[in-house]
Structures are given as structure tokens and as C-alpha cells.
Amino acid sequence: MTKEEKYETLLAQVKAFADAENDGIALMANVAAIIHETMDFWWTGFYRVVGQELVLGPFQGPVACTRIAFGRGVCGTSWKEKRTIVVDDVEQFKGHIACSSASKSEIVVPIFSNDEVVAVLDIDSEKLATFDDTDKKYLEKITTLYLSPKSTFLR
Ligand code: SME
């Protein structure tokens, strides 16, 4: 299967779960599992905005940092700049937070509620330059179509 075909399969699965579940945490948990298993990523998970910090939410993969300040690391920068950030080589990203030395590249996609970031989807790879415009397109589709509408339940 091509990357596009994997994402198309995954989108249908995410839609089915989103249609059936209104609880944001339960939905994030299954979305993390669906993305992680289908795409075979190294770490896939969510951080929720709680006050002035991002707090670790549902994820798949090794243990991770639990709290990230506004503007810190790739996740905190995505929150601050309200945009998806793709990092080909995390060692070249100033301020990258290394939860593990195994992580080499990363993508972070913000989740919005009325133009405010309420959570981020963070995915890490053990290989350099894993994420491209295809990942950005499909992951933004997932967050926009299926997670943002449940965003009042993410808090
Ligand atoms: N590397 C992230 C921190 C989260 S972990 O990768 C799971 C960052 O710089 O924000």
C-alpha cells in the first residue's frame, strides 16, 4: 500500500470512531492507536492545553515528557504559532525537547476550537525526514474533520 492508500484506510476508521464517540479523550486514544498501527510510527500521541502548559494525553509508544510550556519545543511552538510544524531533523530544531534520543524527525499538528489551540497531535519517527506534505495533508484532515468538532470535550 502507498502512504496515500494507508491514510485513506485510516481516515475511514477514524470517521467510524468519531461518529460513534463524543468523549474527546476516548476518541484521542483510539485515533492515536489507529494512526500508530496503520502507519507504523515510533510515537503517536496527543498533548492537551491545560492552563499555560501542554499536558500529555493518550498516546502509543514509549513513555514521554508529561508537560511542555507554551512556545517550548516543537509542540509548544506549534501551539504558539498555530500551525503544523514538520521537522526533518530534530537536532536542527532549536529548543527541541528530546523525550528520547531515538526520535529523529517529527510532525506536530494543532487542534483548534474557535481559532484557539486546545491540543496538538504529535508524531515522532526513528528515521530522519519521515514526514512530508502527504502526512501534513492527511493529519490536518483528521484533526479538522474529526477532532476539532469534539474539541469542547477535549478540555
Ligand atoms: N519532541 C517534542 C516533545 C514531545 S515528545 O517528542 C513525545 C517537542 O519538542 O515538543
Structure characterization notes:
Helix content is 37%, strand content 26%. It is of the alpha+beta class and 155 residues long. It has one domain: GAF domain (Beta-Lactamase), CATH 3.30.450.40. The protein is globular, with a radius of gyration of 14 Å. The mean pLDDT is 95. Bound molecules: methionine sulfoxide. Methionine sulfoxide is lined by residues 43, 64-65, 68, 73-75, 96-97, 99, 103, 106, 122, 124. Methionine sulfoxide binds at residues 43, 64-65, 68, 73-75, 96-97, 99, 103, 106, 122, 124.
Secondary-structure blueprint:
Elements: H1 3-20, H2 24-39, E1 43-50, E2 53-60, E3 67-69, H3 73-81, E4 85-87, E5 105-113, E6 116-125, H4 133-147
Antiparallel strand pairs: 1-2, 1-6, 2-3, 4-5, 5-6
The structure holds methionine sulfoxide.
Concise account of the structure shown:
This protein is of the alpha+beta class and 155 residues long. It has four helices and six strands; from the N terminus they run H-H-E-E-E-H-E-E-E-H.
Spell out the key features of this protein.
about 160 residues, Beta-Lactamase, 6-stranded antiparallel beta sheet, 6 strands, binds methionine sulfoxide
